[in-house]
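ugh ok so i messed up the first submission bc i forgot one of the chains. this is the corrected input, ALL of the components this time, i swear. 714 residues overall. if the numbers dont match what u have on ur side tell me asap before i send this to the collaborators (the ones from the other lab, u know who)
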Amino acid sequence: MPGALLLAVTASPLAAAILCLAARQPRLSEGLNLAAAIVSFTAALPLPFLIGAPPALFCDGYVILDRAAAWVTLCSAIVYLLASIYAVGYMRLLDEDNRLFGFYALFAGFGCTILVAPVMNHIALYWIAIELTTLVSTFLVAFERAAESIEAAWKYIIVVSAGISLALLGTLLLYWSGSFVLGPSYTMTWAAMSGAAARLNPLLVMLSFLLALVGYGSKVGLAPMHTWLPDAHSEGPAPVSAMLSGALLNTAMIGIVRFLGIARAAGLGRAPGLALVGFGALSLFIAGLFIVRQQGVKRLMAYSSVEHMGVMALGFGFGGPLGIAGALYHMLNHSLNKSLMFFGAGNMMRAYGTKDIAAITGVLRYFPVQGVLWLAGAVAITGAPPFGLFLSEFTIMRAGLQPSFAWAVYLMAALLIVIFIGFLNHFRHMYYSRSDGSTGAPARRLSAWCAVPMWLALAPVLVLGVWWPGAIWNYLAAIAPSLSAGMP
Amino acid sequence: MPLAALPPLAAALFSVLAIASLLLSFVMLGSRWLKQYLYAFAAESWMIAGISAAVAFFDHVPELYLIAGLTVAFRGLMLPWLIWRMIGRLTIDREFHEIVQPASGLVIGALFVVFALAVSYRIAGALSVKPGVAVLALTVMLAMMLIGFLLLAVRREAISQILGLLVLENGIFLGSQILVPGMPLLFELVVLFDLLVLIACFGVLVAYLQTHAGTTSARDLKRLVG
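and heres the new structure output, hopefully the right one now
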């Protein structure tokens, strides 16, 4: 049963991508991609409930469906569905109907690679899946073919490919270290390496963990490897930005987390967690600086992604049931919330015809309903109650309250306050400052396709904020032992 | 470990080929003509194919003959041909604005090799591996990766950056042939294929860059900041 569902999750976007290319019809491709997203989502929804403690293996052990993978797949499928609904409305605004089938083919293909990567059991195949996400999404970032989009796409592919080659080196060194224990030829699965970790050479494991952290970290957007992220997220079409931020970053994060599990199982003590905490704290710091002085509305959202990836890195780095459950819960909340934020940003960008925060004024006057939705999302993304991100960030902070990580918690609290003020100050300007006359009313009206996914994203963020279901807590806490074996 | 019991001839052959690859990446570092980079890269790929074939022969891993053949076909012929066509379509054939002059680049590259050697000795010491081919392979792999990053950082033409990435990949591939010849074949096949897709993507992007951004030099890509 889980096998058939997993096949439905991953194969339907692939089928949609192929059919879009065959049909070459803009409206039909829209429908195909949306149908694939609905199938993926409905098939991914029951996966976490069906997976127990022993992971399910498929395809001769090349595919693994454990609790962590099912969770990340669910998060990605949610974002894929929301972004697909939104894309119908948004892409019609671009007047590119003759190239639209190509967009949807790539979009569905991107969805497929994102959904496939977390279930890869072979460490090297996971690397290849992550590389494929880059190759497909580059063309989505470049879709609008403005000079800025091409520049963003170029930086994206160069920075991420170079970064991820370090992860390949890390994978190679890990294989080499395993070959002293498991023989010259063996299958390098996550579980096999965790199992053998205690007998591996600690120096080599640490080295490969650090390389994987920097390599996949450049894909996750941890500072200082985040430089591609604001460009790619701000220059792609808004549905693509939502996918990049809400789904792709999680998919790469799970790789770091699994490497962390191996490193912890190798008995390296606090060092691997500390490395992750360091990158997380730096990401928060850098994001805080750039959020306060930001001028572009989508770049603001992009730096907020850097911030939230930093928060997740802190959670995973702190470890323990609280830290890991908090970070995984944060993953879901961030996926929903950041999709909402990018949808709102895309809407305003199209409505006002500008990316500049300074030129957007009086949002609430022209868009009373959408304006409220977006503002609620902004309050949520900065970690204010009663939304889900408050709960998950609070849980992560509680996890960090141990002597060796207390400094990171204080730093995190201070930076979150700075980001709260800086982020909402931009919204104050967009909502409440008077127009100086140079910027007029928005030029366009927006269809219901652009507003519905915002409702769909905000409602669960609110529910998850006031009620963290016990079943989800137990599920996430059960992931923790496999990722923090050997913690001191 | 097969590396421990290598006949002297095999060890000598591996060493010569690995060092030749390293020298070829220095050729790339020391030149400013795009075509010369390309030839050096192609030759480097042939060296790596030679290493694959030698490992296949001495370690009795027949699958690696296939890898050697594919390395020649993909990295030695196809990728250089694709990039050669890209260069042909561009109006530019050399670097104009290096941040670091080729001569200084060579010195930095040499320092990288020393650093890589120190790191490799440290790793080999921790693993109690005898200094020999393994240390050499580690050194060459790390040095080629560092040189690849240096090329990415100091060269501004789109083509140079692609070749910088390929040097990175070549370094890893070289290391994997000698250090872990038992690595599953599937993986290496997919990586080769992956590279081909990567270059195809780059081809399209370079064309976009030229028509929409009006330049292929990363120096002019500075609209997006902050």
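quick check: Residues 185-213 of chain B form the longest helix (29 residues). that seems consistent at least. The mean pLDDT of chain B is 85.
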